[in-house]
Amino acid sequence: NTVNNSNKKTAECCGYPISIFFIVVNEFCERFSYYGMRAVLVLYFRYFLLWDDDLATSIYHAFVALCYLTPILGAIIADSWLGKFKTIIYLSIVYAIGQVTMAISTIHDITDANRDGTPDNFTFHIALSMLGLILIALGTGGIKPCVAAFGGDQFQEHQSRQLNTFFSVFYLCINAGSLLSTLITPVLRAQECGIHTQQQCYPLAFGVPAVLMVISLVVFIAGSGMYVKTDPEGNIMWSVCKCIGFAIKNRFRHRSSSYPKREHWMDWANEKYDKLLIAQIKMVLKVLFLYIPLPMFWTLFDQKGSRWTLQATTMSGDFVSILISTVNPILILTLVPIMDRLIFPLIQKCGLNFSPLKRMTVGMLFAAMAFVSAALVQIEIDKTLPNFPSSSESQLKVVNTYSTTLNVTISPNEHLLIESFGSSADYVTFDHQDITVSLNTNPVITKAFSLIKGGRQTLIIPSDPTVMRDFVLRHGEQWCEFSRKFGFGASYTFLIPSTCESITEVEDMKPNSVHMALQIPQYFLITTGEVMFSVTGLQFSYSQAPKNMKSVLQAGWLCTNAVGNIIVLIVAELGKLPKQWAEYLLFASLLVAVSIIFSIMAYFYTYIDPAEIEAQVRKEQGLEPEEMEKETIEMEEKDEDQKNEQGVKQTKI
Q1: pLDDT attached to residue 8
Q2: Looking at the record, which segments are called Disordered (predicted)?
Q3: Could you give the angle at the alpha carbon of 309 between the alpha carbons of 303 and 313, nearest 5°?
Q4: Which of 3, 142, 349, 550 is deepest in the core (most CB within 10 A)?
């Protein structure tokens, strides 16, 4: 069955345009691709590229910030130049190339000439991965404002119920893709793969998201002949920017006191722009002013993908480590209906004025509490971590494979008694590099060594103590079978005698003992904060601005997210706090301070009715009362079709 819409016949199935099934599958695959790649990104930086925690965190948040800035570019391209369909196609190609490039950058065998399992040319892998991330950011951000709106374009005016269902299913696909990918890709990374040496399988963990992105693109193109494609209609953001720019320039020209003051600085645009547009921009600016403190919330929130992930690597847990990565999407799906259907109505019935701005303030405080919880967990972790040397110190452990107990003297005055096939109890710390080791054998054996600053080394005393050196274990002549379950974070040295009869284990670092389950409270608190802050914030923003300005507010909202990630980048690179728990408390304190400032701003904020203000401006412009009354009635009594048309416009950015 077909229906005519603007000279375009669209095929239907069960009352729905067939084209939207391609769009829904496309969105699921794209979200799986993005969140799957992001789930293991900071681990790739840390354990493949061997960056330290601060650099890995900085690059991760620079990437996320870019992903939240490019939607503005995508919206302008779609609305002013290419249209939504072509924008999705072209930027999805860029996106897919980026994912494939990123997957190739994780193949260690490409530059592993000596086949030791470690890339020989890290510059190649870094350059390739950075190129891939830039392309991914352009792709995922560029199509973000287009896909949902393009899906809405497929429906006819009589399909209001189906349009509602589409947006619900669309949102479900986003969360389903996020949930499944964050569950699956860490498991794929834990596998071992490689051509010459078996290493953690980053190519598989990044390759599957790349394949999903290619599938997403193919599926979207497959439905090309069925889509309703609208022409670009112009982007409101450009008009807003030009109007604001003219007002500022005109005010500067008339800065002399001889010119009379105007009620609002935007009134200096009256000479060129329509009063209704100026009034709408005033309403938007009032909301955007409240956005100024908001980046600090995102500064904390997005660290669950960086700092909290790295924190989990210093904890114990097996299957729980997989579940932790899925806590946020699971809690989102659970808490949103609970808050909307139970908590908020209950608070309202109790007679409490829990306004949207108050909800956002409470959401900030929940995020701050999440970081206090993370700090407490970090303090417990720090109690179990080994004492690593500073940049000016060196550490040494001595292992004795000699047949008898040895007295070992290390200059100037370190004395160790080490049993046969045993080791020193812990690493010995030195503030100098050059040491002399003496053994109480007959005759006494003395040898000088030079240690590495800021590192740990192990000195092995062989069965022939006259030769203290590194050794190579050759295979093929005989073999030993030994089984040992390693603990998370542990480091071991195994002493294998020539007879292979008994293998001695030396524990260099104890396994992590703080369980990952302790992270669940901080995830619960941050997700509660997200529901109260993010969902409420967008609802409030849309209620306080004209419907044709939704895209401007969405652009401002995305910018707060980008700025928040840039703040993390700056703190990670410049802060350099000695303890991670101190950094968590710093962020929590900053957010508490910002929430106080925001609550003061909210106290003085006056809620408005955009439709009423627009009606008043139109009346001042000379519209007849009958027309105004008709327009007001239409605003107050929108039918379901009109609501859905607004829903499409709200997704435009």
Answers
A1: 55
A2: 619-653
A3: 150
A4: 142
Do residues 377 and 514 lie in contact, with contact meaning Cβ atoms separated by under 8 Å?
Answer: yes
pLDDT tops 50 at residue 472: no
Based on the number of CB atoms within 10 Å of its own CB, is 465 exposed (0-12), middle (13-18) or buried (19 or more)? middle
The maximal CA–CA distance of the chain, rounded, in angstroms, is: 114
pLDDT in tens, 11-29: 777 778 999 999 999 999 9
Which residues lie across from 461 on neighbouring strands? 400
Q: Of residues 401 and 276, which shows the higher confidence score?
A: 276
Counted residue by residue, the chain has a size of 653
The pLDDT of 261-286, averaged and rounded, is 92
Rounded Cα distance, 572 and 57, in Å: 7
Closest CA to 18 of 223, 230, 219, 229: 223
Q: Angle at CA 390, nearest 5°, toward 386 and 392?
A: 145
Q: Kindly state the helix (H) or strand (E) to which residue 640 belongs, with its residue range.
A: helix 640-650
Q: Does residue 389 have a cis bond before it (omega within 30 degrees)?
A: no
Q: Which residues pair with 414 in a beta bridge?
A: 410
Q: Is 39 exposed, middle or buried (0-12, 13-18, 19+ CB in 10 A)?
A: buried
In single-letter form, the type of residue at position 484 comes to R
Answer whether residue 568 shows pLDDT above 50.
Answer: yes
Q: Classify residue 118 by burial, with Cβ atoms within 10 Å: 0-12, 13-18, 19+.
A: middle
Collapse the DSSP code of 219 into the 3-class scheme (helix H, G, I; strand E, B; otherwise coil) and give the result. Answer: helix
Residues 558-581: what's their mean pLDDT? Answer: 90
What number of other Cβ atoms are within 10 A of residue 90's Cβ? Answer: 15
Number of H helices, E strands in the chain: 22, 15
Contact yes or no for 583/577 (Cβ under 8 A): yes
